[in-house]
Design goal:
With 207 residues, the protein is α/β, with parallel strands linked by helices. It has 8 helices and 6 strands; from the N terminus they run αβααβββαβαβααα. It has helices at 2-9, 22-40, 43-46, 75-79, 102-114, 134-139, 162-175, 183-188, and strands at 14-19, 49-52, 57-60, 65-70, 88-91, 120-123. A 6-stranded mixed sheet has the order 2-3-4-1-5-6, with helices on both faces. β3 and β4 form a beta hairpin. It starts with a helix and ends in a 19-residue tail after the last helix.
């Protein structure tokens, strides 16, 4: 919604939303996010917009365009953002980038791209098992966090699904009360950095 409002309120700008892969961006954003938000904002009546599923873009009648892309396939995909100019860039699922250097993407490619507008870069994502990632350092209070404004929330902070999720979790806890101690539960439901040893090749925790 922030990206769509930014495009609406700033005519002629480009906004980038980067996901883990091109396919994941297409599946997540175009069906379940873009259209519902456009409808909620009343764009169906007040603003002309065109969704291009081939190029993965949303173009507004004011000349602004939101581009969607995947960056984790290889460095060539990441380098497609070189030399472009963006008002806002959102890096989604930032904890899951395994094939590229996220820090390099942020500071060497995206920072110059938003400099013309003095724009904004946002990293979002659920904690994962990649504890050596740049996203982990930023969101867990390491020195890298000084350059960022860090925010955190859990499923309970989402008013759209809190009733459904509460019901689901009550069912899961009834079956397995120990689920609250599971690293996967803490990652995906509470937004906490925990290593899920069962998902690792070498089930080893140095702590």
């Amino acid at each position: 919604e922030l990206a769509l409002k930014g495009a609406f309120e700033n005519p002629g700008v480009s906004i980038g939303i980067i996901g883990n892969t091109r396919d994941s961006v297409k599946k997540i954003y175009f069906k379940d996010i873009v259209r519902p938000i456009c409808k909620r904002l009343g764009w169906a009546e007040d603003v002309d917009f065109w969704i291009n599923k081939t190029e993965l873009s949303v173009e507004l009648s004011n000349g602004s365009i939101i581009y969607f892309a995947g960056a984790d396939a290889n460095e060539d995909e990441m380098n497609k953002f070189l030399g472009q100019k963006f008002f806002l860039v959102v890096v989604d699922e930032a904890s899951m980038y395994a094939n590229i250097d996220l820090k390099y993407l942020i500071h060497e490619i995206l920072e110059p791209a938003v400099s013309d507008y003095e724009g904004t870069i946002i990293m979002i994502g659920t904690p994962s098992n990649y504890l050596n990632s740049y996203y982990h350092k930023v969101t867990s209070g390491k020195p890298e966090a000084k350059a960022w404004s860090v925010h955190k929330w859990t499923w309970a902070d989402n008013p759209h699904v809190v009733k459904q999720i509460t019901k689901l979790l009550e069912t899961k806890k009834a079956v397995d009360p120990e689920i609250v101690n599971d690293p996967g539960y803490k990652q995906h439901w509470l937004g906490e950095w925990q290593v899920e040893l069962s998902a690792m090749v070498y089930k080893f925790d140095p702590k």
